[in-house]
Structure of Acetylglutamate kinase:
Amino acid sequence: MKEKLYIIKIGGALIDDQELLDQFLEQFSEIKEKKILVHGGGKLATTLADKLGVEQKMINGRRITDKDTLDIVSMVYAGGINKNIVAKLQKKKCKAIGFSGADANLIKAKKREHPEIDFGFVGDITQKSVNKKLISKLIKLDLVPVFSAITHDKKGNLFNTNADTIASVLAQALSLKYEVELLYCFDKEGVLEDVDNPKSVIKSVTEEEFSVLKEAGKLHKGILPKLENALGAVKNNVDKVFLIKETQLKNHIENHHGGTEICL
């Protein structure tokens, strides 16, 4: 029987609110099973870029990462945010250890190729990108890996990589060894039928239902990459995938209640 592993991804709104982040990390630290945390970047990178006069360009919610922007996101994601989270978890007696994909060659990426857009230093990853043997050894040591949204190509280049994708690909790669439950924690109760009505939670979403919701324009751009990556995980043998409200983590773990389950 496979051992249970939670892979939990948190995003910008939570990272930007220190009080909420503290409450979330308290709940995260209490999870008894094996666990991995993946985090995005919040507004800090954009704020720092503005202060430094580095223009930020976004296409379909994805950041174009030139060299100056790469320097900023590396400092903010793999530096300030990652170490802040690790320090807070240590305070809660959780043996967290912070990583970028470059550390110990844990996640190797390829520069994104696109027929029309040069995304700059943006890296794409697959299951083969993940050093699952070494990550499994870290987990066996009762360490809790905390991954930032920075990867590398083993040629000396760092890449900005979508944190939702990192969480999904880690879940897919590690599902060969563990019974993985992937949780996307964000500021909504789950996938909403009506974005203005927090009670309109859709209990489960299949690939077909996702296409219908997308076609009807009911999914705001922030949730699209989460759902696409969640579906990718389900299609690649990840045991369970949920989108839940960040404040409901403990309730979900203990009672298997709330949020939206992503199904085939």
In short: The chain has a mean pLDDT of 95. The two ends are 23 Å apart (CA to CA).
